[in-house]
Amino acid sequence: MPERRTTAWSAAACILLALALTGCADDGRRAAQRTEAEAVARLAATFVADLRGDAERLAAEVVTARTAGRPRTDISAIAEAVLRDKPDRLGISVAFEPDGYDGDDAGHESQRPVGDKSGRFGVYYFRSGDGSVVADNLQMTAEAGIDLWYSPVIATGRKRLDEPFRYPLGGVEQPISSILLPLVADGNIIGVATVETLMTPVIDEIAARDQAWPGRIWVISEAGNWIVHADASRNGTTIDSATAQSPEEVVALETYRDLLSSDRTVSDGTAGPFALRVTFEDLQQSWIVITTPIGE
């Protein structure tokens, strides 16, 4: 009888120990998911902060040039410096309200690129195929789409990080985004500056972590576009449950929608996918980072 009781106690102890170890393992996996999500969030925040810094530097130098009465052609050197220092920066737009730069649109009529037909200053500076910086006029009309980027910033005075999109570069579609800032002088909004960038640097860093981590990492913008997907061709495209490629992707999308529908910044629960909202201060944008264990 004592031997039977001892055996029963031993079996019970083994079961309790196994449950405890399983709980520890689950806690460890959950902690690893959170650690990975937080590391990805830091990469995203650093990428956006660097882009914002370039845009703020550009805006400050442009306004300083205007205040100093420098000629319009001097803006080219400011834009070129940003593009030269950061190979991933693709283009810069600098556009002013009518007579917003020097009050002399009439004296710059049809003086491309620093004056359109009316003399208004709106220029796009971009890196050409040979690496040199080229300048061209922006079409500052509703028909050309200024209500999609310029007009909202003028109306609200708010900075904005645009949603990612795909654009062919060198015959290969690449994910691109841009940041938009108001140009402000003497308390008045006088124009808009933008910086376009390749998103591949931050995507590649996150993808490298995804490859090294025993799970899957997903990043989706608040508006529902892929920042990081296991299939790189999906980065910069709109999420779509109907085209989900794996059970993990289905779970990631469900987790994304659940977090987005709440005011939480971190997903609830002690198991399954983990989600973390990364909000970019004053840029009207946030990304959601999701880590899913393989098989969930």
CATH homologous superfamily label of the largest domain: PAS domain
Number of domains: 2
- Amino- and carboxy-terminal Cα gap: 46 Å
CATH class bucket of the largest domain: Alpha Beta
Please state the CA-atom Rg, rounded to the nearest Å. 26 Å
Structural class: alpha+beta
- How does CATH name the architecture of the largest domain? 2-Layer Sandwich
According to CATH, the fold-level topology of the largest domain is Beta-Lactamase
Helical run tally? 5
Mean pLDDT reading: 87
What does the overall shape look like? elongated
Largest sheet: 7 strands, antiparallel
What report would you give on this structure?
This protein is of the alpha+beta class and 296 residues long. The protein folds into two domains: 28-47 and 201-293, Beta-Lactamase (2-Layer Sandwich); 49-198, 2-Layer Sandwich (Beta-Lactamase). The chain is 39% helix and 26% strand. The chain has five helices and eleven strands. A hairpin with a 4-residue loop joins strand 10 and strand 11. Helix 1 runs antiparallel to helix 2 (75-85) and helix 1 (2-67) runs antiparallel to helix 4 (200-212). It starts with a helix and ends with a strand. The model is unreliable at 1-25 (pLDDT under 50). Residues 1-25 form the signal peptide. It comes from Dongia mobilis. This is Cache domain-containing protein. Keywords: Signal.
